[in-house]
Amino acid sequence: MEPLFDFLGSYWWLIFPIGGMAGGWASQWSKASAERHRRKVELLKLKNQLAVHEEANQAEVVSLIAAHDSVNHRWLEYELDVGNLIDFPLMTDVREPLTVAFLRAKKEADGLRPARPEEISTPARLAEYRAAVHSYELAFDVAEREARRIKDGNFTGPERQRLATARKLLRIAEDTAATPAERQTAYKRARKELDGLIVLPEATVAALESKIISMLDTRKEPDTDVRSA
User: Fold this and answer.
1) Does some domain include residue 11?
2) I want to staple 105 with a disulfide (CB 3.0 to 4.6 A). Which of 44, 54, 136, 162 is the partner?
3) Residue 202 in domain
4) What are the transmembrane regions (predicted)?
């Protein structure tokens, strides 16, 4: 121990530079620790922001799908109801630019619609679907307003009379109080009146015929029961 004390006694002044160096190292270590902590906090904030952003994107996709469904439902009120198509024939008249624009917008939106919200995972894909749905909504609104404004105004007097006759015949075809023969005859006559005036979509015809057939089957069931008895 004596040599050590001799050394310290001779070089005691080294305490100051060594102490300064140690203080500098401690200060640098403290700053490095603080920097590492700051980076961890920033990384955590960034992860939280990304999670919130992703959640918000999924919420928007769900909202867009709901808006898409809403317009589709409004369209089905025409496509599956012959009466509405007779009252507002422009909705299926592909000679009308507004109708063509709406049908094209629908096709584009339907093509971009995801099966699940999670399928839209990029901003570009979201922007594409958002634009398609908004275009579909706008095109349908414009076409519907015009159809309700014009109604059957594009038809001549005799043609409007044929449309009115077809409307009455369809009421008979859907009337449960009418006999099966009356309903079948009324349906055939209604189709004849509409021929050349309104092109009914396949879905419209299928829905109408399915409804009439089910009514005919329902009407026949009691007779079958009576015969069986």
Assistant:
1) no
2) 136
3) yes
4) 12-30
Q: What is the pLDDT of residues 77-108, one digit of tens each?
A: 999 899 999 999 999 998 999 999 999 999 99
**Total domains in the fold of the chain:** 2
Q: How far apart are CA 206 and CA 201, in angstroms?
A: 9
Q: For 26-85, how does the pLDDT look when each residue is reduced to its tens digit (9 = 90+)?
A: 667 667 676 776 776 566 556 554 444 455 489 999 999 999 999 999 999 999 899 999
**Which domain covers residue 144, as residue numbers?**
49-154
Q: How far apart are CA 2 and CA 49, in angstroms?
A: 64
| Vertex 29: Cα angle to 28 and 30 (nearest 5) | 90
Q: Decide if 54 contacts 62 (C-beta within 8 A).
A: no
Contact by Cβ (8 Å): 136, 105: yes
226 found inside a domain: no
Contact 97, 142 (CB under 8 A): no
Please answer whether residues 143 and 101 qualify as being in contact, where contact means their C-beta atoms are separated by less than 8 angstroms. yes
**Which of helix, strand or coil describes residue 211?**
helix
Q: Are 151 and 144 in contact (CB under 8 A)?
A: no
Q: How many CA atoms lie within 13 A of 64 on its CB side?
A: 28
Identify the pLDDT of residue 56. Answer: 47
CA distances from 176 to 172, 193, 204 (A): 8, 22, 20
Residue 229 has pLDDT above 90, yes or no: no
Give the domain-ending residue among 109, 139, 154: 154
